[in-house]
Amino acid sequence: MNAREPAFATTSRSARLRQMLLSNELEFLMEAHNGLSARIVREAGFKAIWGSGLAISAQYGVRDNNEASWTQVVDTLEFMADASDLPILLDGDTGYGNFNNVRRLVRKLEQRGIAGVCIEDKQFPKTNSFINGEAQPLADMDEFCGKIKAGKDSQSDENFSIVARVEALIAGWGMDEALRRAEAYRQAGADAILIHSKLSRPDEILEFAREWAGRGPLVIVPTKYYSTPTEVFREAGISAVIWANHLVRAATSAMQAVAREIHTNQTLVNVEDSIAAVNEIFRLQDADEYSEAEDRYLSSGRAASGAVVLAASRGKGLEAVTEDRPKVMLPIAGKPLLRWLVDAFKKQGVNDITVVGGYRADAIDTAGIKLVVNERHAQTGELASLACATSKLAGDTVVSYGDLLFRSYILRDLVESEADFSVVVDSSLTDAENASVRDFAWCSSADDRGLFGNKVTLRHVSSGAAASAAGVSASIAAQTPHGRWVGLLNVRGAGRERLQAVLAQLQTRPDFDSLDMPALLNALIEAGESIEVQYVHGHWRGVNDLDDFRRAGDFAHAQAPFAVTAGDTAGKTDAASGAAR
Ligand code: SPV
Ligand code: MG
């Protein structure tokens, strides 16, 4: 059973269609022509779908003359059956050939969960009954009975229904012939008779129903006699009414109007409010179910990874070049700093990137990212910006400063870490002679480059927020730091919710607006979390002042394929300056 099917649909689709045909109530089938319309029919409350030959061929842009092959029709039905748990009665035209084609059709329809098929007593290839119907040749009655028998004999589900459609009234052969054929088809095993008419009044249908006198279920298609009150059909003992083509027609007029409007005025502004929202399309496609499944099946996979990039600041010391844009939009070697970062994330499969903007957020290039704005950026710090993105955190997440450039292995190693929390610390920068400089890191042990891969955890990071030093023991602060945190934090699995909880706790503090990322790392450590340290030795750059900005170009150039510059020689430290962010 399809994952989308509601729990109440315990009776098979074929049994439900059969019950509808046999019930004493007047039942209704609504046309659908693809997965989307099948979904819409179900949501409107209908109990069954008419897989209209006219509508399916029309949505392919071909004629109702068997121009679409029968396998194309069956493939379309598969999408419809997947999108809706309703029984589908296929308009199977003439059965696409002789008795043998009907046998194969029935078996294939059963395999795809289709509840029944209606076949009409015309000749293959057929033409729609409303196009010069009188000129259309009817099938030989006995041959058609053979098709019905062949179909019934080949079904393996006893509830699969075969509806025999009588075209005698359409072709002008008269009431007696219509009744004679209907009776022959009933005796051949048809589960219901569809009696079709092209008149604008229901008279011949009602006369047929009177003469038929309840010998078996009767189905009608009131496309032409649409003004007849439905109560008239009920009183005539009709079993089921097919609303045969109204969704493809509705879609056609809506598409024509919208296409005309957009073409004429060369803008979307006049149509947006009168068409389905993109989110409504996502809902009909069941996009939420996909996200849930991703959480279930991809939770440890790279594809579920995201990043939050803190990019709200103008950049102290960079005022001269950030009049009209935030720091992250400064061009470095031909592309904005943020683009270097986004490209680096995407390269590692970190695709769901949320950027928290603030100062001149309007100038941020949003291609490939989600932008959220910290409206209070002028009065708040990094954690207030991070808090703007907490609702976007899903799956594994890298939290990153927006002004970073780094060699790709740094991010690769970080996202491959199994730890719930991990950070990158540059052990080449230990010179914290300036007490105001932040982001220096004290760890459980120094970077012993000879013991590459040793497990090291973070003990403290120097913060610009005075209050956050409260919990640090004097003994740690008195020691030389082990390096500098580069501004990358990876959060995995259950770590995400624990980070959200610690952040929520910090939000209750009166000084929350002044807190920075080190304050969060320290709070995590104080809450007992273990934060794994990955040491690097250079190979990254932060952009904190004009000097950094100038040098960043050299660093970035060296990251481009086959670039050879003086700035990226092995052994040379491409590290950030020690300036405050
Ligand atoms: C269809 O919907 O394709 C039908 C019904 O066969 S009608 O077009 O009215 O003949
Ligand atoms: Mg048809």
Describe, in plain words, how this protein is organized in 3D:
With 581 residues, the chain is an alpha/beta fold. It folds into 2 domains: 2-252, TIM Barrel; 305-571, Spore Coat Polysaccharide Biosynthesis Protein SpsA, Chain A (Alpha-Beta Complex), CATH 3.90.550. It is 35% helix and 16% strand. The protein has 19 helices and 21 strands. The protein has helices spanning 13-22, 35-44, 53-59, 70-83, 99-111, 141-154, 175-188, 203-212, 230-235, 246-265, 278-284, 287-298, 337-347, 382-388, 408-416, 474-478, 495-507, 517-526, 546-559; strands at residues 27-32, 49-51, 88-91, 116-120, 161-166, 192-195, 218-220, 240-243, 306-311, 331-332, 335-336, 352-357, 370-373, 397-401, 404-406, 421-426, 440-443, 458-461, 483-491, 531-536, 540-542. The strands form 4 sheets. Strands 9, 12, 13, 14, 16, 17, 18, 19 and 20 form a 9-stranded mixed sheet that branches. An 8-stranded parallel β-barrel has the order 1-2-3-4-5-6-7-8, surrounded by 9 helices. Strands 10-11 form a two-stranded antiparallel sheet. Strand 6, helix 8 (203-212) and strand 7 form a beta-alpha-beta unit. It is elongated. The model is unreliable at 1-8 and 563-580 (pLDDT under 50). Magnesium ion binds at residues 52-54, 91. Magnesium ion (MG) binds next to helix 3.
Bound ligands, each once = sulfopyruvate, magnesium ion
Largest sheet: 9 strands, mixed
Radius of gyration: 35 Å
- The CATH architecture name of the largest domain reads Alpha-Beta Complex
Total DSSP E strands:
21
Which residue ranges are poorly predicted, with pLDDT under 50 across at least 5 consecutive positions? 1-8, 563-580
Number of domains: 2
Helix content: 25-40%
Please state the overall shape, judged from the principal axes of the Cα atoms. elongated
CATH superfamily of the largest domain: Spore Coat Polysaccharide Biosynthesis Protein SpsA, Chain A
Beta-strand proportion: 15-25%
Mean of residue pLDDT values: 89
Number of H- or I-type helical stretches: 19
| First-residue to last-residue Cα separation | 56 Å
* Class by alpha and beta content: alpha/beta
Q: What is the name of the CATH topology of the largest domain? A: Spore Coat Polysaccharide Biosynthesis Protein SpsA, Chain A
